[in-house]
Write a structure and sequence with these properties.
Layout (H helix, E strand, L loop, with lengths): L1 H25 L7 H5 L6 H10 L6 H13 L13 H36 L4 H15 L2 H15 L15 H35 L2 H8 L4 H13 L1 H16 L2 H6 L5 H10 L3 H29 L6
Length: about 325
């Protein structure tokens, strides 16, 4: 098992280096010049030259990349060109917000997706199965921004039950915090619940037809015990991998939802950075997100190896 983990860790480093090169290179394709944007309307040549020198924008791209990567290895993600604050500080402020939203959305997705998938598999071909598949189709085909707007119109504008936008820290007011997160978390968890439901249903159908389930039934065990103690644990193996990967996707893909609900998380941070041509913030946020995603991939591989020893080899 240790050898398996070390092998996966060895693959992680070159992946992150490649991601950093792609992030640094592709952002150069963004239109506009951050030095000219910061210089203001006058665009004094001396001011522009000073800005270029301070942020190493007058250096060749390989030199800029080497300087940035050297800072990253020392724990310095650079400084925001626009608001003059360390990128690491901005990440430390915004990451907990998106992480809380992602955890909330994942909890909703698992609470809906796994039971729906189990019921659909056990009641295959019945009205329950058709209803679960209809829910999955609806969840996969509904755009997040559209669903978010509808929820705001219903629960905030018409009923007045929930705040339409904003974010309150749980340390400031836990009740208000949950009220601001429940709609965006449901929007994100809705589509993921549909994916988890489909995977759970497929895995359960395969497990229910396996020899060990037939043996358990032949021993006279109740159907509920057969489903919960024998079929479900084995059916959840691929769902573990899916959940870890989708958690990373939620963490990096909440941009539209955070924009709709005006949540000051990672999504809003990177959108503002792109519009303001704040290269350092874009690089830092994408690199941190890629690191989290890679670590979640590693966690998924390790968890899958725990439940399936044949993969440790």
């Amino acid at each position: 098992m240790r050898r398996y983990i070390l092998h996966r860790l060895a693959l992680l480093l070159p992946t992150l280096i490649l991601v950093s090169m792609l992030v640094f290179g592709l952002q150069q394709l963004l239109p506009g010049d951050p030095a000219l944007a910061l210089a203001g309307e006058q665009r004094d040549p001396e001011v522009v030259a000073f800005i270029r020198h301070r942020y190493h924008l007058d250096q060749p791209l390989p030199v800029q990349y080497a300087l940035w990567l050297g800072g990253v290895l020392e724990g310095d993600l650079g400084e925001s060109i626009r608001i003059q604050r360390p990128v690491l500080q901005l990440v430390a402020e915004k990451l907990p917000v998106t992480l809380e939203l992602t955890l909330f959305a994942m909890a909703i997705a698992l609470a809906i997706g796994i039971p729906a998938g189990v019921v659909a598999a056990v009641e295959r071909g019945t009205a329950w199965d058709l209803a679960a598949n209809a829910f999955a189709l609806w969840g996969l085909s509904t755009p997040n921004f559209w669903l978010g707007i509808l929820l705001i119109l219903l629960f905030s504008v018409d009923l007045g039950w929930l705040p339409a936008s904003g974010y309150v820290s749980p340390f400031e007011n836990l009740g208000r915090n949950l009220a601001t997160l429940i709609m965006p978390a449901f929007v994100l968890g809705n589509a993921l619940a549909a994916v988890i439901m489909r995977h759970t249903r497929s895995s359960m159908l395969h497990a229910l037809q396996s020899d060990y389930v037939r043996t358990a039934r032949a021993k006279g065990l109740s159907e509920m015990r057969v489903i919960l103690r024998h079929a479900l644990p084995n059916a959840l193996q691929p769902v573990i991998t899916l959940g870890a990967l989708e958690f990373g996707a939620l963490l990096s893909g909440a941009v539209l939802t955070e924009q709709v609900f005006t949540i000051p998380g990672f999504g809003k941070l990177i959108v503002d950075a792109v519009f303001n041509r704040d290269y350092a913030v874009v690089q830092g946020v994408v690199l941190v997100t890629a690191t989290f995603y890679s670590l979640l991939n590693l966690a998924a591989d390790v968890l899958y190896a725990v439940v399936n020893p044949r993969l440790r080899g």
